[in-house]
Automatic annotation (TrEMBL):
List of residues binding Mg(2+): 92, 94, 96
Lineage: Bacteria, Bacillati, Actinomycetota, Actinomycetes, Bifidobacteriales
Limits of the Phosphoribosyl-AMP cyclohydrolase domain: 45-117
Family: Belongs to the PRA-CH family.
Cofactor annotation comment: Binds 1 zinc ion per subunit.
Protein's name according to its UniProt entry: Phosphoribosyl-AMP cyclohydrolase
Length: 138
């Protein structure tokens, strides 16, 4: 199998089998997709994709999700105008989550907030610290 840099996508009717083979699905045949603003790295939202939603995302330049509540595909921004333009798509080491970097136009959340994590607020948690006080060097 070639590297991801060698993979090209076209408007085929099925997800590339090289990609499909790397995915691990949940019980409903879905993969979690974390959506992040490409330049600020702000986490905007989490959605779910099946093969078709991922294929559409990879081949159109716009993010498409599978709506678990409505049981249908939805392309982010078609009704709201709050479009997500794909900048990159990555698969995590376990194959069970995607990181979709986007250029977000307007709000990502259905509440009208930029991020779906703006409304919920922080949860009480004990903050951990490294015993040696050292920071990780990148």
């Amino acid at each position: 199998m070639g590297s991801e840099a060698e993979m090209t996508y076209d408007n085929t009717v099925t997800l590339d089998p090289r990609i499909k083979a790397r995915l691990k699905y949940d019980g409903q045949g879905l993969v979690c997709a974390v959506v992040q603003q490409y330049d600020t790295h702000e986490v905007l939202m989490v959605g779910y994709m099946d093969d078709e939603a991922l294929r559409r995302t990879l081949t159109t330049g716009r993010v498409t999700f599978w709506s678990r509540s409505r049981q249908e595909y939805w392309r982010k921004g078609d009704t709201s105008g709050h479009v997500q333009y794909v900048k990159s798509v990555r698969l995590d080491c376990d194959g069970d989550a995607l990181l979709i970097e986007v250029d977000q136009v307007g709000a990502a959340c259905h509440t009208g907030k930029r991020s779906c994590f703006d409304e919920g607020g922080p949860l009480p948690a004990v903050v951990g610290e490294r015993p040696d006080g050292q920071q990780e060097v990148a």
